[in-house]
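Researcher: Here's the sequence for the chain we discussed earlier.
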Amino acid sequence: MNDHSARTLSTGIANLLAHPSTAPAAATTDSARQHLAFGPIGIALLHIERAAAGLGPWQRAHDWLAAAARQPFTSGADSHPFYGAPALAHVLACAAEGLPGAYERDLDLLDRQVLGDVRRRLDAAHRRIDAGSTPALAEFDAIRGLAGFGGYLLRRDPTGPALRSVLEYCVRLAEPIIHDGNTLPGWWALTGPSGRPDDRFPGGHGNTGMAHGIGSVLSLLALSARRNVTAAGHHEAMRTILAWIDRWEATTTGGRTWPYWVTRSELRTDRLAPSAPRRPSWCYGTAGLARAQQLAALALGETERQSAAENALLDALTDPAQLRATVDTGLCHGFTGLAHLAARTAADASSQTAKQLHAALPDLLSKLLPSGATSEEASAALVNSPTGPGLLDGAAGTALGVLATSSAGPPRTGWDAFLLIA
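Model: Thanks. This is the structure I predict for it:
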């Protein structure tokens, strides 16, 4: 898929999602209303980015936001970066970036709600650490936890005390803990990857992912350090996390890879169990972790690590075995996410690696077009597919991702900040 086809695909999706009244019903259900991943605020983000780039009218974004705001948004313990007031805050911050002064009063209110929520979460997290307990994934991850909140604060108030407090927590999270006489990484969860007890994970697991694991914390620390915002022990915490990732690196014929998680038995034997090639993606696996490591290497000035991370991503994007394991189109764990990671990584890569990453984009994006389909037909298929019209897995996210890969510069509104990759 060339740049013209990518822009046509993005435009086709945006036109099919022009107004809530004509969109698939899945986008406007009560359960979706407050959710960034698959509800109206995620679709509004598509129209905000397009309007900021001069590719569509602002009215479309306003209409989707109005559909979401027909009732109040949840704040407090039941909200998180992907749901409720914090999710809406991210979307309105993007709108304010593209249309200065827009939603200013609403954003001020949401910022106060986010700050209150962050304070409560930090208090609980420090009490948990002081008690020597292990964390829940939702305490620190990008989707529901403090890494996700930190990404928002890095954008809205990078020099404020709340972000520094989140970074101080991240430093503590990187410190080892003793549980039942065993030394575990500070982010070890006693649950399965779902966050619930799981018989398949006796003794819990160490999650490496960007969505629910320590990859998100590494990215937040790296992004903050690159903006000269750090806490005491900041760089040491990054190195601790990187040492863990290095410990579990595997080298295959397809290049360097990293596991989605490490089980208690693998930790005990210091050996990963054999497994078939897994899909590289933003949420789990090699692609997201490669970007996190590149960002950390840039922050630490480690050129060899930077090169290794960039080449690991390039290998993942061109390894037939890993690509065969990728069967989705969306941002989270599909081809759009891989293409968007490639473009974001290339922007910070050495010139030669950047060329190679860009060269991989057409093949990745071609996976979005059913065989023989036009861009217009593909747009309709994506909007009406089982993954739906939403942001994280669905058509709106695909439209944003392909728009970004076909543009000369980064997104106008920073819409992808919720992914903690830039």
